[in-house]
């Protein structure tokens, strides 16, 4: 009887071990793949940046179906203006308004989503932006300014106070989602490899895996174009090589 009980226990432990192993493998597989929601962010940001509004419409519909809320898509449009300008951002918002009207006419009700939380932080905007940027890049920003920040100090102030404070402090999107918007925009407009290199590195800092960034490039190729994807791939290869 004791032998049978011991055998049952051993079988049970083996099954539990197998289940844990399978679950761990499943979680590992999941971490290498962008979610459907993350995937939908890429063409929305890229087509808006390029001004490809007819292609943007189905991308917006797909994003809503993938689980993006109305406010999250609005925030994507607001965020990307810092990288491709007000004209593209506003045209993207106007196109989104058209899509929303079309969906309402069909009886489709989309989730509005949360608004940005009220900010309760007594630090200056510059200090908030500096702290946010340090979180993104994973290191402190000490020492004298160099490069473009030394050549035109005011733009460094604008970046800290507006982009990394005013915009990044809005919690409608996570830092990771904002960085996905950013690399999508930069890849779409092209000829900004140093910026793309920096932000792909930040993507790794905020939790994206190399496989997920490779998937990002594949989506750029499938939606935006081979040339843009090829240029992004070159930069990604460099970033991963120098990790």
From TrEMBL:
PANTHER family in the record: 4-CARBOXYMUCONOLACTONE DECARBOXYLASE FAMILY PROTEIN, CARBOXYMUCONOLACTONE DECARBOXYLASE-LIKE DOMAIN-CONTAINING PROTEIN
A Pfam family recorded for this sequence: CMD
Name this protein carries in UniProt: Carboxymuconolactone decarboxylase
Residues of the Carboxymuconolactone decarboxylase-like domain: 32-92, 159-232
Database matches in Gene3D superfamilies: AhpD-like
């Amino acid at each position: 009887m004791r032998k049978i009980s011991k055998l049952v226990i051993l079988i049970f432990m083996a099954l539990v071990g197998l289940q844990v192993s399978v679950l761990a493998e499943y979680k590992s597989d999941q971490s290498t793949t962008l979610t459907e929601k993350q995937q939908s962010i890429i063409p929305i940001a890229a087509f808006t940046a390029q001004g490809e509004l007819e292609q943007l419409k189905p991308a917006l519909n797909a994003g809503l179906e993938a689980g993006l809320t109305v406010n999250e898509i609005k925030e994507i449009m607001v965020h990307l203006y810092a990288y491709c300008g007000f004209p593209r951002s506003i045209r993207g918002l106007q196109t989104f308004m058209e899509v929303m009207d079309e969906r309402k006419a069909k009886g489709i009700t989309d989730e509005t989503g949360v608004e940005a939380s009220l900010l309760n932080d007594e630090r200056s905007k510059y200090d908030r932006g500096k702290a946010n940027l340090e979180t993104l890049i994973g290191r402190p920003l000490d020492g004298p300014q160099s490069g473009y920040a030394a050549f035109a100090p005011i733009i460094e102030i604008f970046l800290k106070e507006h982009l990394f404070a005013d915009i990044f402090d809005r919690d409608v999107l996570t830092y990771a989602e904002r960085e996905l918007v950013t690399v999508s925009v930069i890849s779409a407009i092209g000829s900004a490899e140093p910026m793309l290199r920096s932000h792909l590195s930040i993507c790794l800092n905020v939790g994206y895996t190399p496989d997920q960034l490779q998937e990002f490039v594949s989506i750029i190729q499938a939606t935006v174009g081979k040339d843009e994807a090829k240029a992004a791939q070159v930069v990604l290869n460099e970033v991963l090589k120098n990790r």
